[in-house]
Structures are given as structure tokens and as C-alpha cells.
Amino acid sequence: MKKNKLNIALIGLGNIGSYLYKYLQENKKILSKKNNCIPEIIYVSAKNKNKKRNIKINKNKWLKNYLDSTILKNVDVIVELIGGAEGAAKKLVFNALKNKKHVVTANKALIAKYGDQLSKIAEKNKVNLEFEAAVCGGVPIIRSLKEGLIANKISRVYGIFNGTSNYILSNMDKDRKSFNDVLFDAKRKGYAESNPISDLNGDDVASKLKILSSLCFNSFINHKIHVEGINSIDSFDIDNANKLGYKIKLLGVAEIINNKVYQRVHPTLIKQSSYIASIDGVLNAVIVDGKPVGENVIQGEGAGPEATTSALVSDISSILRGNVKFPFSISSKERKSLNYSNIAERTFSAYLRFEVFDRPGVLSKITNIFSKNKVSIKRLIQNPNKSKKFSSIVIITHNSKDKSLVKIIKQIEKKPYITKKPKLIRIGTN
Amino acid sequence: MKKNKLNIALIGLGNIGSYLYKYLQENKKILSKKNNCIPEIIYVSAKNKNKKRNIKINKNKWLKNYLDSTILKNVDVIVELIGGAEGAAKKLVFNALKNKKHVVTANKALIAKYGDQLSKIAEKNKVNLEFEAAVCGGVPIIRSLKEGLIANKISRVYGIFNGTSNYILSNMDKDRKSFNDVLFDAKRKGYAESNPISDLNGDDVASKLKILSSLCFNSFINHKIHVEGINSIDSFDIDNANKLGYKIKLLGVAEIINNKVYQRVHPTLIKQSSYIASIDGVLNAVIVDGKPVGENVIQGEGAGPEATTSALVSDISSILRGNVKFPFSISSKERKSLNYSNIAERTFSAYLRFEVFDRPGVLSKITNIFSKNKVSIKRLIQNPNKSKKFSSIVIITHNSKDKSLVKIIKQIEKKPYITKKPKLIRIGTN
Fold it and tell me: In this structure, which topology does domain B142-300 adopt according to CATH?
């Protein structure tokens, strides 16, 4: 029988946990009315109990050990806000589901790594495992895929899934500043963490993409994925992109082409006039191509306590309403093992940039390597340095196999006329 | 106990009904797996049984009378695709809910007019009344408001809710064609119905806005709404907008300002650089401002059998999963009667256009009327006609009460120097 009250243990009281605690206190009445069930936080736990927080928590709510929440009989739902794929978060979520507690988590790393295993336990024990907050907080994409867009056979999901890197790329463009200057600025404003490695190297996007991909394609999570971050993008690339009518965006893309799945995260040149090029700052956007619906776009704030709380509360509400659902939209028994292909086999038009000593014959040596690899050149721009000792060669190719493009880079980067590591930025979303 | 099969009667077999029928036949297996329940169409009905359709329907599925679906014990769900706020559709849906059948409908006119009454019957009888397909088909906004964004206190919902009028406005702009030429073209391509009155006069948007507004604000449906269509927009307005850095869009806006609700549908000048200005053609976009989530955007195809089927199937799936929910997100007992204000009291910056005989003194007479009404002018452009007998005066005002703007129009339109009905187009979304 459906309960009229669910008891929640909230584990992790950083910015997000504290905001959620306050939100649930202030909005208990309206949530109870909408979901016909009262959400009651009866326990909390955090690494540092004595840290200054903006909330008042009754002393007897504090658990002695966070793992007690998984054993105590009066706990129905555990909200995990510890973070990280291993350690405490992993222990908590596995134990919670094993002991038939519903779980709500914002932990993308954990779900991307152990989502398949966790999902099987949740299904066996008929409890919910909800992770809307793990993917683009303020964008209700998980629930839309599981419910609003449930009718659709999805062939592609892509978008901007990381606010920090998008903030950096759009501000390098807008303010004509260097990567490091904008990063410094982003840290100061709280748009980048003190250690933003996983935001910048593409790993954060990769976790989100793996989760979305498995939801969209009814498949198990697959770790075959090409990941590049934005670390090597410099102002000159941004300027070149502008001159050519593009913006540079860090995209995550999962797509099915001829029954093969490609998962990839990399900086991409996007036409200035396209929708995705207009997504600036810390915004996130997810685009889904499905049949029969066509193209669907959802856009919102990607992170921060506010947007994440919106997602967490939507998960908690779903549990309050008493809907036990498959965590990945379909039973684990029905999820498929698809054929995942390497990006090397996909074709792209691409931007390649070579910094060279400006000597006679260099250009023809470079174009010769393109020709030997059967990659045809659509456009070539040579910019001599002021000193005229160095030159920058930018080449836009026609559609070519990715492996040929990479091979060209590898062949040319060893040449004595090269002064800097050459660059490859893929173009477009098609 | 949750059934493992639900029997559906599909009433109405036009383009959408036929597409849905085919879709459900082809996707029964995957939907059954995702929702743990089989959707089975056991009856159909349509005005013209013998019309040529692209589907094969077993003879014994045809009902003698469509209303039998509301009585037959083996029917669980009725999908109403008749359309119209009165007559057959109204009879069907009221009877269905009274007889404890779940209802799925794409009928915006019916829900905008009778949604409150219908909702009370559905709640009393513990059945679902679902209408995702009634508002912007391919945009899963209803489910997002009820579930993905459930945490949020919404202060404004607005957007482009009518594909036909948006197609006309964007093509008048893109192709520099007249309203009538583009309308003719839209009819030929199937983007406008043979009788597109409610698409062009704003009524279609008004129905959708009333539904969204009541969902966003937890209030009853309210019919205090200002409605203008696009019929009076001409190429010269589009050109002026472009020169001034704007696009003209038909917006629906529901907003709470100082505890008063304003509902309005009218052509609006939107900054070219804004997101909403980029929504062209038959696309729809809904923007929600809420706390804590911030701004949220959902964009997709607005109409057509494909997008509408995506919405209908999401509603059917919700019923298959066995979630009986409040049709308007919250119990009728808890829905509020808010304070609705007239647009006359709201302030706008606005574009006013006067076509006049080009005589000395006319300009000063016009500006004098502005000044008497305490409306200050931000910008004034006077374009003499080639013959120099006529002149066009475009005025952009500072923020002013809407009633003052309307008063100015009314005072000036009677003057002997006026050659055409003057125009008022409000600016911006703030």
C-alpha cells in the first residue's frame, strides 16, 4: 500500500545538500499536496558535522555513522550527495539498494561506472534509483527521456553538458581573453571549482553522455568513448573559428549510424547560426533526435545548488508518488548490448592547424601528406607571423575518415618544420 | 491492483488518430516492456468509417456508436481525437470520466474551457485525464511542469505556441513576402489548415496559454486574457522591426507581477539576439522562469501527427504505469483563485505606427497627443512616401501603461490626417 509519508536520510551537506535541506523544510506542504505523500528528512550525515551551515538541524537528526541510514528500518529514501565513483558514496548506494531503500543521487561518476549493477539490485528489490541531478541539473532530461519522450526511437543525443567549459569557451570568445585568464576569472566567480580537471578534460561530459546514451538507446552503459577536453584550445583557434563562421563548443555526442553507436566528447566547430552555438556561459542544452517527435531541445542551468535541487526534488517527488520504475527506463533483462564503434571509423569535415617555420616548400610538403592520405582540402589559410619567420596554416577538409585525419596529424607533428603540436578540431554535428 | 493490460478505445481517426493507431500496433512490445503493461486498442470510431486510411483495422473493432466506449466494461482508456470544445468531444470526455475511464486527449479547446470541471470528475473517480498533446505536441511541457520541474515556484511561462503563425511571420521576414502570399504558401505546404482562423487570430495560443498558466500557478483556468493575432502585421512592420534590431513573434505570456496574474497573447517585438527570436518556422518553444531552477527552455515541433503521437503515447504510458495523478498537478481543492489583472495596467515599451497625409503640423499634432497622455518617446522615424503625399511615422516609446498606449491609438485613429488604422506592437518579454 502507498504510504502517506516517506522518511528521508540526507547524506552529504555541502552547498547542494544544505540547499536541499532548506528547500524541503520550506516546501514540505506543497510537495505533500502535489504528491499525496509527505517528504520528511529524519536523518542527516556529513563529513564535517561542525562546519558552518546556513541551516538549523536538530541534533537528534545526525546519524552516528552515515551507513546506519541503510540499516535503520524507519528510513525509506536515501539521498546521496557525497560524490565520487568509489569510497563512501559507492558503499552507501550499494548498501541502500541491497537493503531496499530508494536512492536519489546526483553522482554522475557513480552512475556512469556502476549504474548497470545498481540498476539490477534496485529492480530486484523493487525500489527506485533516481539520478536526474547527475546529468545537467536544471535540464529535466532524464525524466523527459523516461516519460515525456518515451514514445521515441532515438538516433542521436548531443549537446553542451558542462557549464564550466562552456563558460570558458564563450568568455574566451566574447572577451578575447586567453584560456588561463578566463579560467582564473571563472574560479573567482565560482563557475569553476578549485580543481576543475574533470570539467576541462572532458571526463565530466563523458560520464553524463554514457548515462544519456544508455537511456536513449535502451542499452547497457558502454565505456567505448572518445574523450578530448578544451585544454588545448587557444585564442587563435577561437579567432579562426569566428572568421570561418563558427563557434567552438565542447560537445558530447552519442549517435547511431548504420547500426553502430559512436560516443564522443570533443571540442567542435559549430556554425554560428545554429541553435547550439547560441548556448553561452554556464547554460547546458540537450538535443534529442527521435522518431516520431523529430528534434527536441531542452535548455537550462547546468549546475549549482538551485538547479540541482530542482532535479533532486523531481526525483524525490517521483518516489513520493509511489511509482517504482526501471532506473534506465527498461528492465535490465531487456537492455541491449549494442555494437559500439571507434570514432576512427566515422567521417568528419575538420579544422587542422599547423604552426610551422616559414620556409619555402613547407606548404607543399603538408598538402602532399593530405593528398597521400586521400584527404581533400576544402579551404586553406596561411597566416605569416609578423616576424615572417613563422607561419600558421589552417586547413578545412572535406569529409574524411577520422583515422586519416589523425594519421595526418601524427605524420606532420614529427616533421622538422613544425614548431608546435598540430591541432585537429572536428566540424559540425552531422 | 495494477493490471498488466489496458484496453483502449480510439475515437477519431483523422491524420493523428491514424498515425497513433499505426504507431501503437508497431510499438506495442517496447511500450509494454517500458511500462510493464500492454496497450491494446480494442475499439475505434470515426465520423467517416469508409474514408481511405493508411491502416488496416479489423472490422469488429469498429464501435456502432462512439459513446459506447464510455459504457463498455472492457474499455480502460479512451483517446479522444475528435476536437472542438463542444459537441461530440465534450460528450465523450465528460461521459468517459463519469464512467471511470481514463482519458487522453489532444483537445486544447475542450481543456481550456472545461478543464476545471473535468479535472474534478477525474479526481473524484480516481482516473487520469491527460492532455500533453493539447499544448505544443512535440514539446513535453505538461509532463515537465508536473514532474521534472515540480520543485519550482513559477513566476512566468511564455513562448511560441503556434507553428502556423510562426511559420508565416518568419517566412514574411526571410522571403520578404506579404502576409497573404506566405499564407497561401503555408496552406499549400500543409503548414496552415484550409481554415486557419484560430491559428491567426491568437485563439489557439490563448487556449494553450490558459492551460499552461493554470498548471504553472496552481490556479483554476482563468479566461481573463488579452488576445491579438497576427492578421494586421504587414511587411512594412517586419522591415521596421529588422531595422530597429527586432523580430516580430506571436507570443503567449502568463506572468505574476506584484501578486497579479497577466495573461496575454499578441505580436511582440523581440530583440534579434534573444533565444526566442531564433525560433523559426513551425517550431514551438516554451520558456519557464522558476525558483530554484532559473530559466528553462523546451523546444520542439509544435504539431503534426508525429509530434502529437509522441505526446499522446507519453500520456498513454503514464496511465499504463498506473500512476493516477491530479490532472492539473494539484488537487482541485488546493487550486487557487488568483488575482487576474487587465493588460491595461501593465507597462510596456511599444512600437506605434501611424500612416498619415504628409501635411505640415501633423507630426507635432501626433507628438502632442503622446505628451498629453504622458507617454514619452524614445525614438521617432518618419518615412515619406515616394509621392510625398503620404508619410509613415514609427514611434518607439519608453515604458508606459498599456492603457495610455491604447488611448493614444484611439485618439489618433479618428484624426483626419490618418490614412490607415494605426498599429501598436508591444516590445520585449519583460
Answer: Dihydrodipicolinate Reductase; domain 2 (3.30.360)
B 294-333 → A contacts, CB under 8 A? 294-301, 305-307, 309-310, 312-314, 317-318, 321-323, 325-326, 329-331
Q: How many angstroms separate the CA atoms of B207 and B213, rounded?
A: 10
Instruction: For residue A98, give how far its alpha carbon lies from the nearest alpha carbon of chain B (Å).
Output: 23
Q: Do A296 and B292 touch (CB under 8 A)?
A: no
Query: Where does A259-303 show beta strands of DSSP type E?
Result: 260-271, 283-291, 294-301
Residues 27-46 of A with CB under 8 A from B: 27, 30-31, 33-35
Task: Determine the pLDDT at residue B324.
Answer: 78
Confirm or reject CATH 3.20.10.10 for domain B346-427, answering yes or no: no
Kindly state whether B138 is in contact with chain A, defined as any CB-CB distance less than 8 angstroms.
yes
More confident position, A71 or A52: A71
Chain A 211-240, CB below 8 Å of chain B: which residues?
218
Residues of chain A with CATH 3.30.360.10: 141-301
The model's pLDDT over A149-178, given as tens digits with 9 standing for 90+, comes to 999 999 999 999 999 999 999 999 999 999
For CATH 3.40.50.720, the residue range(s) in chain A are 5-134
Q: What is the pLDDT of residues B291-301, one digit of tens each?
A: 999 999 999 99
B196 in contact with chain A, both atoms CB, cutoff 8 A: no
Contacts (Cβ under 8 Å, ≥6 apart) of B119: B129, B326, B327, B328, B332
Q: What superfamily does domain B5-134 belong to in CATH?
A: NAD(P)-binding Rossmann-like Domain (3.40.50.720)
* Closest by Cβ to B149, choosing from A19, A140, A301: A140
The answer to whether the Cβ–Cβ distance between A297 and B293 falls below 8 Å is no
Q: Which fold has domain A141-301?
A: Dihydrodipicolinate Reductase; domain 2 (3.30.360)
Long-range interactions of A341-345: CB distance < 8 A, separation 24+: A341/A224, A341/A257, A341/A260, A341/A261, A341/A262, A342/A224, A342/A226, A343/A226, A343/A262, A343/A264, A343/A402, A344/A401, A344/A402, A344/A403, A344/A406, A345/A260, A345/A401, A345/A402, A345/A403
Residue B139 and residue A296: Cβ atoms within 8 Å? yes
Question: What value does the mean pLDDT take over residues B364-375?
Answer: 97
Is residue A239 over pLDDT 70?
yes
- Give me the active site residues of B, please: 208
Minimal CA separation from A140 to chain B, in Å? 5
Give yes or no for residue B1 having a pLDDT over 70: no
CB contact under 8 A, A149 and B314: yes
A310–B138 CB contact, under 8 Å:
no
In this structure, how many other beta carbons lie within 10 angstroms of the beta carbon of residue B376? Answer: 11
3-state secondary structure of A416: coil
Average pLDDT, chain A: 95
Residue A430 has a pLDDT of 58
- For residue B241, how far is the Cα from the chain centroid? 23
Q: Choose the CATH number for A344-427 among 3.30.70.260, 2.60.120.10, 3.30.2130.10, 3.50.50.60.
A: 3.30.70.260
To which residue does cell 480502460 refer?
A: B76
Note the ipTM here: 0.92
- Note whether B294 contacts A317, CB cutoff 8 Å: no
| Residues above pLDDT 90, as percent of chain B | 89
Give the pLDDT band of residue B64 (cuts 50, 70, 90): very high
Instruction: Please indicate whether residue A180 or residue B387 has the higher confidence score (pLDDT).
Output: A180
pLDDT at B241: 96
pLDDT number for residue B385: 79
Question: In chain B, where does the domain assigned CATH 3.30.70.260 lie?
Answer: 346-427
Measure CB to CB from residue B150 to each of A19, A294, A317 and give the nearest one: A317
Question: Which residue type is seen at A384?
Answer: P
Where are the CATH 3.30.360.10 domain residues in chain B? 142-300
Residue A429 banded pLDDT, cuts 50, 70, 90: confident
Contact present, B69 and B75 (Cβ < 8 Å): yes
Query: What is the model's pTM?
Result: 0.94
Which pLDDT score is estimated for A2? 73
